[in-house]
Amino acid sequence: MAAKTSNLVALLLSLFLLLLSISSQVGLGEAKRNLRNNLRLDCVSHPSPPPPHRSMAPPIFVPPSTSHKGQGP
User: Fold this and answer.
1) 14 partner at 20 to 30 Å CA-CA among 21, 29, 48, 62?
2) Molecular function terms in GO for this entry?
3) Do residues 39 and 45 touch, judged by C-beta distance below 8 A?
């Protein structure tokens, strides 16, 4: 029974350490991204103008095929 308890404790401890490691890596990634975004915003003196507005092109009309099923073109 002591061996099962020992294995269970080791498993839970390993899972906890894995979770802690993953969460710290995610936190570091977010911190780096935020720092990069803040530095990028500091370098920009004024926002760039929005892209020009494009009008929507009309859809292309494709006539239905004149060939019948089972017959050639």
Assistant:
1) 29
2) LRR domain binding; receptor serine/threonine kinase binding
3) no
The residue type found at 27 is G
Those residues whose C-beta lies under 8 Å from the C-beta of residue 60, and which sit 6 or more positions away, are none
Report which residue type is found at 17: L
The values of phi and psi at residue 70, to 5°, are 85, -15
Q: How many angstroms separate the first and last alpha carbons of the chain?
A: 79
Q: Say if residue 2's pLDDT is above 80.
A: no
Residue 46 tokens, joined: 């004024």
* Helix, strand, coil abundance in the chain, percent, nearest 5: 60, 0, 40
SS (H, E, C) 57-70: CCCCCCCCCCCCCC
